[in-house]
Structure formats: structure tokens, C-alpha cells
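Quick one: structure for this chain?
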Amino acid sequence: MQRQIFTEEHHAFRETVRTFLAKEVTPHYEQWEKDGIVSREAWRAAGRQGLLGLAVPQEYGGGGESDFRFSAVLAEEFTRAGAAGLAVGLHNDIIGPYLTTLGTEEQKRRWLPGFCSGELITAIAMTEPGAGSDLQGIRTSAEDAGDHWVLNGSKTFISNGILADLVVVVAKTTPEGGAHGLSLLVVERGMEGFERGRNLDKIGQKSQDTAELFFNDVRVPKENLLGELNGAFVHLMTHLAQERMGIAVAGIAGAEHLLEITSQYVKEREAFGRPLAKLQHIRFEIAEMATECAVTRAFLDRCIVDHSAGELDAVHASMAKWWATELQKRVADRCLQLHGGYGYMTEYRVAKAFTDGRIQTIYGGTTEIMKEIIGRSLLG
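Got it. Here's what it folds into:
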């Protein structure tokens, strides 16, 4: 089915993204995977190309474009290229809105130009060794010391953790407040007591630096409070829909791309003297995946349009995230099976997609959390 949600401007942007990936990312990606981290120059190149800060107002160096369809194009093309390491979606669509909607004028002028140029790489630190989806379990704390906060605690599984120059940290500022006693503090590279632990060894997304972070009596200036004091819970809930949409968009794009390359593979690969595509079982497998992708694409495109218009609610974003990422996981597994032994070889795109995509049903809220949000909305 022909997609109808994009304009000529979006199509032109897609070509820009593809050119950037071909020139600045794909030739270096294998080395980044070996290094466990991407080059900072790639971030600066993305900034020069106008791929960072798409929704940031132009006065701060951004694109001034709030249309989420541009972010969707970016997510789709990075997914098709297998370039999860350069986490521009995290930077643009998850952390960007916190800075633009919660930041003071002084904070915006201090941080956003570098955010858009690629000079300042960002991360958000919520997850702790003992607290994932349960915000009430967060133990990292910040004590009011007059003109600054004293931050103590640790975080784990932090994407961009090694490269990040700005880290938005979720910390407990009112111990007795539970989830409503949390605030967002911006920790900057070089602050005394801010240390990075291991660049974690993951089964996939090898070039995406994911780290442990430690805060030992870090003096965070009062002017680095982002948003309202004790307002982190509301701030986080407000922006989760966009985070989940970004993951969902990557999920369906990943499934569609795997279907494309597997369909081509079974046409070329022979078994018992004829192409695999001539076997009825193979045709049924492809037919099932193609139908599931088409149905999911229709729903996701509707969600993209609704979100661009500011009309997508948390429940439908959760539906999109759950369904698209679980579909991606199923399609990756089935496509690997159809590749046979070659599917297990890392030189084949399907093998990399299998391991890179496995995290999709976990981060941004697990499938189980998505179902809980949906079920609670329906049943109270």
C-alpha cells in the first residue's frame, strides 16, 4: 500500500538522511562496532547536516520543525541502515523535549546551540541497578545545600553514557515524596564526583555506548534544576508517548526491512534443486509476515499523524510500542530461520538485526508495562 502521510518536503529530507548515512555512517560503522562507541565527529557531522535538534527553535540553532514526521523519517532510515549506535533519536526525540519545554531561557541559551551542533551529546539517567520501570524505587538522591544540590547515587544501562556531555538525572529531592518527590537535575561533563563506569558489553547495538554512571557528592548548581522541583514524575509521564512512538517507528521499519531482504534471499537461495521461494511453506511464512507488517504499518502511520498533530494519547502510544516491537522480534526470529545457517553469521544483516532489535521490547517501557497501561485505561 502506498503511504500517504509524507509530503515532498519529507521525501526530500529522507534523501538527505540517506546521503548522510552513506557518507558519514556506513563506511565507519564496522569499526565503531569493534570500538564499542561511535566517533564524536559523526555527531558533529549530523549537526552540520541539520539532523540534530529538528524541533528546537531556530533562535537556538535548531530546525524549528515540530512535525514528528521528520523524526519518523530519521528513525526509519537509521533503522534500515542498521545504525543504532548513533542514537540521534534518543538525543532529538527523548531528551530534546525536556530541554525545550522545561528549560529556562538561560538554560536554553546555554545548552541548545551545542545540542543542535553535535558538540553537546546528551543522555537521560533513570534506570538504577534496583529500579527500572518502577520510579518509586529510585534511590539516587539530591540534598539541598543552599546554592547547589549534593547528588549521590548510581545509574545503569544509560545510552550515550560514555559520550554524554549533559546527563538529565532523575533524583530523589524529597525522600518522603515517593514518585512525586523526584526532580530532574542536569549533570555536566567534568563536574567533580561524576564518574562513568563500564561501557557495558551488550548482545547487540555494540557501537551504542551504554554505561554505568556514578555520582559521589556531585555539586549540581541550583540553576541546573530542569523543570519544577519534585516535578519529575509529571515531566516524565508527559514525554513518554514520544519516546515510545520513536521506538515503535523503528520497530515497524526494522520488520519491513527484514522482510524485504529475506524475500530477496529466498528467491535466490536454492534447496532441493529449486529456489526456496517455490516452497509453499516459505511462501506462507512470507505472506504472514507481509500481512502483519502491512496492518501494523497502517496503525503506526495513523499514530504518527496523530502525534504530529498533538493528538496521540499515552494509551495508543503504548499500543504502538508494544505491537510494533513484538512484531519486530517475531519477524527477526522467523527471517533468521529462513536464512538457515547463514542467518546465524554476523556478516548477514539478519543476524545483526536479530541481536540489535532484541532490546526494543524492553527499553522505553517493557511490553508488560505497555499492556498494564492499556489494561488499566480500559478496566480502571
